[in-house]
Design a protein that fits this description.
single chain, alpha/beta, 7 strands
Length: about 110
Amino acid sequence: MVAYAMHLPRDPLFKSVRIHPDDEHGKQFEFSGWLARRGFSKASSSGKTTYAGDCTDVEDRMITINPKSGLGDVVAGIGDRVKGLHETVGRLMGKPHSGRQVAVVPCTDLT
């Protein structure tokens, strides 16, 4: 999820990238440290968790972490379109979304 979110700001057309982790992702993944190792620092905090808020880097790329379910795991706006990542194809088919949706699957023997 976060690796995909890091990929999106490379495109200058994207205005923002938002990550919406669920409670389990928040408990099991250290967002701030992972982003810091990739040159991002916390610009602002929000909500009750230690990891929620805006993170920016020296190139002015911004990733917002907002632990709110139902918004898509990773969402980026490009003009009036939205590009989103859901963990499984089933989530893509679960409810209609405007814009292009992308499913990311790890490259393993099982998948």
